[in-house]
Amino acid sequence: MTEHLTVCIVTFERPTFLVRCLEGLRALEGEPPEVVVVDASRNAVRERAELAFPGVRYVHAPLLAGWMTRSRNEALRWASGEVIAFIDDDVVVRPDWAKAIVAVFADPAVAAVGGRTCNGIPGEEHYDLPIGALRADGTLTDGFAAARDAPVLIDHGIGANMSFRRGVLAELGGFRDDYPGTALREDTDIFLRVRAIGGIALFAPQAVVDHRAAPHVQGARFDTRYKLYGRRNHVVLLARDQGLGSPMLRRWIARQFDGIRSAGGMLARARRLGVTSLGVSWGLAVALRQAGLRPTPARRTDAGGKALRRTLSARPLRPSASPPPNGPPTFALVIPTHRRPELLRQAVDSALRQTRPFDQIIVVADGRDDPASALLTELPVEGIAIDRAGVSAARNRGIELARTDWVCFLDDDDLLHPEYLQRIELEIESDPEVAALNTKCWSFASPAGPAADFDATTLDECLERSAGVVPKNPREYMRIEGRSFDLLLERMRGAMSTTAVRRQLITAAGGFPEGMITAQDWVMYVNVARLAEWRCIGEPLAFSRDHAGTVTRSANPLKGLTALRAIQGFWQPSALPTPSHRPLDAYRPHYRRVLEWALAACWRARDYRTFREALAVGDDLLRRRDVVYAARPLWLRRSYWGELLNDRH
Q1: Cβ(370)–Cβ(392) under 8 Å?
Q2: Does residue 647 register a pLDDT over 60?
Q3: Any idea what DSSP says for residue 225?
Q4: Sign of the dihedral defined by the CA atoms of residues 286, 288, 289, 294, in that order
Q5: Do 616 and 61 form a contact (C-beta atoms < 8 A)?
Q6: Fewest CB atoms within 10 Å of the CB: 326, 370, 426, 546?
Q7: Taking CA 56 as the corner, what is the angle to CA 300 and CA 573, rounded to the nearest 5 degrees?
């Protein structure tokens, strides 16, 4: 019942409470849910967490300290459930909590659920006001410990025990991650945004957790800071939901200043006046800068929101309904494309010129308005256009349409050698046990740059100029037979346009991860290697086009961060087998180079937020001295001066 539920916990410097929380999850009735922990503490407690809940996905992200909303969004990147629940690290769930959550979401109209959170306070089960309501004066009601016989409609829930449908979080783009300090109102914000897009939120009294609160910092300084952020965040919340010019916001601000009179003593009144004035002014300035007088759209449109939307919208690969035919092996070729019709025509032509023809050629246009969609009716291929979702979704759709034993892949800007498939088939006939194959490839460009093997534009030119030529890069690193998983942990050691995998194997491996803007092929290669050894044919049997649009020529900060997250994912617990491999220390020199590339891209783009996120991932993988070395200024790097000299010449 709970196999489609992911439980997310964000924690900071409270390992004892985290362990207790995880032990409570282990005592849940039924199948254990997926559990993701994002720990912003200085020191990792991965071993203690895994002992308390075997299989937990533990993510150590110390640079997220002080940003609960960003930690929640980090947890969303690792969650795979259709229902995603958040609990605080200082709660203990009751044994039937997960079943109660899943039961409420059985109604497809329900988008969000706030569970009952018991604090052990006498009489808290009785509450006379509406539970979880946003009132006309801008104040919020509580009542999340109240006992009710049935679910109750609410405006907002409590962050210690809240759950959402995955599709709703995808539509919203995750949590707004700019509620700083104590992160007050970030939970209210997400519920109000659910309401703004027409979703139904319920209080589920049967989904109970016991809040055994951890001790908080005490003292006037902390209390003042807490109240300051509380006022600032509440102003931002109401401005976003109602608009800066709303009567509700005006009434709430007036209420805050009216309350100053009730403070005892002149000093207390002066302190409260200062905190209220500063907090309200700060909140108004932030809201004015972000939206103006109108409410802010519920759906995030910034880069972080779009990335989370892609991640959360990714769907698992479904096996093809058609069984593969009996007899000799059959092959399908999947070509994803996006707005490159002329290059696609060349790619398809190279597939049609095979000495051993493909049994299926499937072209998937990534975008229904893609110019290549019109071309699909002219070519002798099976063509389909999908909603814009990225290259992984296009490849996965092609796998689902395949009716063959094997699936091969070709990028729309690359070309196949006419003998590619014949050589693949001969390799399979010589060893029927092989399940995943790759070949070497040539690199070409026009004009040829330093990385290209020769100057060419068409397949005929490639065939003519590759004859008798020794490749500049022999690509010996692609020979990974016998220890492919271990070697793939270091780096990507394949070329997608020469890849052939048994259809059942790539389906079992989960296909391509959707929602990533790079490293999708690397993740697929690693997951296939968990189930079978890769085989590399030593002959170059494809032509890879080197041009400005390729991933390796792009220094996009988000691409660097995505590659780091892919590496981080390799070291998380997996439902797939984990073959023998070297310890993490053996891979650190390779990972440091990826971190250097990511940080340099961030620095050139002045994207300091992505820079900090990349550092957080680096801290989880590398030693501190490696992170410091990777983060050194550009002018201390040899490559920087080499690029500068090349530019001047």
Answers
A1: no
A2: no
A3: H
A4: positive
A5: yes
A6: 326
A7: 95
Distance from C-alpha of 201 to C-alpha of 257, rounded to nearest angstrom: 32
Beta bridge partners of 134: 140
- Domain pair 5-218 / 316-553, same fold: yes
Amino acid occupying residue 226: Y
Q: Higher model confidence: residue 146 or residue 61?
A: 146
Residue pair 143/131 in contact (Cβ under 8 Å)? The answer is yes
Q: What are phi and psi of 599, to 5 degrees?
A: -70, -40
**Helix ranges, 409-483 (H):** 420-430, 459-466
Q: Cα(535)–Cα(616) distance, rounded to whole angstroms?
A: 35
The CATH architecture that domain 316-553 belongs to is Alpha-Beta Complex (3.90)
Q: Is 262 exposed, middle or buried (0-12, 13-18, 19+ CB in 10 A)?
A: exposed
557 in Cβ contact with 601 (< 8 Å): yes
Residue 470 is given by DSSP the state P
Q: Where are the domains of the chain?
A: 5-218, 220-290, 316-553, 559-648
Give the C-alpha distances (Å, rounded to integers) separating 246 from 97, 253, 293.
39, 11, 8
- Do 573 and 55 touch, CB atoms closer than 8 A? yes
Dihedral angle over CA of 630, 635, 636, 639, nearest 10:
80
pLDDT in tens, 551-593: 555 568 889 899 999 999 999 888 899 999 999 999 999 999 9
Angle between helices 391-401 and 520-529 (to 10 degrees): 50
Instruction: Determine the straight-line distance between the first and last CA of the chain, rounded to whole angstroms.
Output: 66
pTM of structure: 0.74
d(C-alpha 94, C-alpha 92), whole Å: 7
- CATH code that applies to domain 5-218: 3.90.550.10
Residue with tokens 């958040």: 86
Q: Contact 291/372 with Cβ under 8 angstroms?
A: no
